[in-house]
């Protein structure tokens, strides 16, 4: 279940928000919190709507006008939408970087250095042979 799923009837949403159902109807008319509607036009509130109703109540007790509350909610919703869009773009960019032809990968070189390679390439193998023998001690 998602926080935006419309599941609460107006009486239940009002009780969860600590408000009278008539207040929720008024907020719907003012477009502060607009619930989804059933086929029979009954209001259905989501958990996100209930959280917004609680926020409206809190802001109201702090002396913020309904118009001020409307603007705050608009800005909060805009920030949430923009944050979601940023996450979508970050995921798309990460996917693009991973799937881009010619992307670079890194490998360990023969002497421990980090070597940058194009995808599909292998490191060069070092075929030198090192022979060691102890020094003659006379």
From TrEMBL:
Coiled coil (residue ranges): 72-99
All residue ranges annotated as the HTH merR-type domain in the record: 10-75
InterPro entries documented for this protein: DNA-bd_dom_put_sf, MerR-type_HTH_dom, MerR_fam
Signal peptide stretch: none
Record bears the keyword Transcription: no
A molecular function GO annotation: DNA-binding transcription factor activity
Domain of life: Bacteria
SMART domains for the chain: HTH_MERR
SUPFAM superfamilies recorded: Putative DNA-binding domain
Keyword Amino-acid biosynthesis in annotation: no
Keywords attached to this entry: Coiled coil, DNA-binding
Name the UniProt record assigns to this protein: MerR family transcriptional regulator
Organism: Lacisediminihabitans changchengi
Lineage: Bacteria, Bacillati, Actinomycetota, Actinomycetes, Micrococcales
